[in-house]
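ping. complex inputs:
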Amino acid sequence: MEIIVKDNVEGMSKSAARVVARTLNSKPDAVLGLATGSTPLGLYKELVRMHEQEGLDFSQVTTFNLDEYVGLTQKHTQSYHYFMYENLFKHVNIPNQNIYIPSGSTDNYEAFCKWYEQRIVECGGIDLQILGIGSDGHIAFNEPSSSLGSRTRIKTLAKQTIDDNARFFDSPEEVPVYAITMGVGTILEAHKIILLANGKNKADAVAAAIEGPMTSMITASALQLHRDTMFIVDRDAASSLDMLDYYEWIQDKMPNAP
Ligand code: GLP
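pong. complex structure:
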């Protein structure tokens, strides 16, 4: 794993945007795996800026989102569909037919999940997957005890995740209890992965994912098995890492650190 530590959240977002831009420059028809949450907001903002000011082109790009709440319509302001259109898709030139987001309102989830997995494969797999991390160490909505080989499916959200995400809803009771999510196994098939984290409340999850034992109780720790994963974190999110000095020493010597 590569670990990049930036002074602040802006640095984290710009560094991640450089990784995305490099991917698109070398493969204009890349398949991107996208995440929601507050963490990637700065990244999306920077990608929109690069599109508008530097001509970063998304016209051949395909995207697959990680997850979606079950029971929220696409127009619900807290749905991940809504989030993605508001924060990225409305502002860049990804063809609409190339955008895939799990459905939170299908009448056949099993068939949908199978189809979603198939579409990823038919599109050649995900070239670059962007991830955030939950405060309990989850990736996408793969809550503690999710199989590290899991595929796209419905998951029941953990109490901690519901509490964390309640800030976006009027009350905790309104947070959906179920979500449709790519599995850990699905995510591990991405060719390259970047995980972003900022803030003190992510520090323990980041340390457990990078330095702890690999365990289904911290699903981000499964990334230890992946051949090309980069953690891009701010100083607060890096603050519980035992080997921080070592990672920074390596980062200084990295020829192409983003
Ligand atoms: C949700 C999403 C995850 C995201 C996490 C952290 O659980 N399913 O993909 O990483 O929230 O969100 P935030 O970035 O808002 O802390």
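The pocket of GLP is lined by residues 35-39, 66-67, 132-134, 140-141, 161 (CB under 6 Å).
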